Amino acid sequence: MNTQKLLSIFIIFAVLTCTFMAVGCTEIDNEDDIIEAEQDEEIVASPDEIIDIEWQWSGLTETFPASQSVVPDPENYKITLRSDGTYSIKADCNIGSGGYTMEGNELTLAPGPITLAYCGPDSLDSQYLSLLSNVTTVSMEDDQLVLGIGDNGDRMLFVKGDVAEQ
């Protein structure tokens, strides 16, 4: 009888182990689905929606560590993508320009000439320029321009400013 009890306990343990493993796999799949759904919320930006508009940097979402910050003076940090493949920027007291390529939701900003004035200790000009140099994607989300930074999921958020002068 001892052997039967031992065999029953072993079978129960094996069934429980398989059940927990199956539940664990299901949860991982659900998390993947959630991540995919969140990524689907971003809409590929059509050139007509983003070209020749003065976009103002309003916020930054970072993934590691997770944080979201608001830019105190968005009108001091602007980017305008032009239809001829060039862009112009304002980084607080500095201005610059360069070229860009956009294919689907992939965006690459090539550096160009920029002024290098010291804008003061509270300026975000260095951070802004550093982030722009690592842009990899572009999309629209809730009428905001979203520039993806690198491969880690960081995102720069821009609100619409004026229609840019030609």
TrEMBL record:
<dbReference type="InterPro" id="IPR053147">
    <property type="entry name" value="Hsp_HslJ-like"/>
</dbReference>
<protein>
    <submittedName>
        <fullName>Heat shock protein HslJ</fullName>
    </submittedName>
</protein>
<feature type="domain" description="DUF306">
    <location>
        <begin position="69"/>
        <end position="157"/>
    </location>
</feature>
<dbReference type="InterPro" id="IPR005184">
    <property type="entry name" value="DUF306_Meta_HslJ"/>
</dbReference>
<keyword id="KW-0346">Stress response</keyword>
<dbReference type="Pfam" id="PF03724">
    <property type="entry name" value="META"/>
</dbReference>
<dbReference type="InterPro" id="IPR038670">
    <property type="entry name" value="HslJ-like_sf"/>
</dbReference>
